[in-house]
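step=encode ok
step=design start
structure_in=
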């Protein structure tokens, strides 16, 4: 059973971003399951690296979508700062794994709760009211990646 299952509650009604959130949760679930199963450190490290790479792509795309949707500049800057903090957090976790520091399942669950779940539900949801503007631009072919 996955640690976190995608459900409508996570949707921000921007299909590309929802797909990316779904994939982030899948990778996070893979990481959690590997840790719980006591998989080799290299396996955990590889999964964490894929999470980092995908998060970088996602953050870039999400910020572009916010700009395209007319998300208020001040709010976009604040959201970018949150992404920077998430980068710091995931790189810290990455460093701890690289230095072979032991992480408990509870530590990882807290990280995943704060990093993915809370961020999507509390911060990314703020994009929902702008989703219609994104869909309209996409239909008109004016949404560029």
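sequence_out=
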């Amino acid at each position: 059973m996955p640690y976190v299952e995608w459900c409508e509650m996570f949707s921000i009604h921007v299909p590309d971003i929802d797909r990316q959130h779904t994939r982030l949760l899948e990778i996070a679930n893979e990481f959690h399951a590997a840790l719980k199963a006591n998989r080799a450190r290299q396996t955990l490290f590889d999964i964490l690296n894929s999470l980092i790479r995908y998060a970088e792509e996602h953050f870039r795309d999400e910020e572009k979508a916010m700009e395209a949707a007319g998300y208020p500049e001040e709010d976009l800057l604040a959201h970018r700062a949150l992404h920077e903090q998430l980068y710091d957090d995931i790189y810290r976790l990455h460093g701890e794994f690289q230095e072979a520091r032991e992480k408990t399942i509870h530590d990882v669950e807290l990280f995943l709760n704060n990093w993915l779940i809370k961020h999507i539900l509390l911060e990314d949801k703020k994009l929902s009211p702008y989703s219609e503007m994104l869909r309209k631009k996409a239909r008109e072919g004016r949404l560029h990646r």
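step=design ok
step=annotate ok -> Helices lie at 15-36, 41-68, 73-98, 105-123, 131-139.
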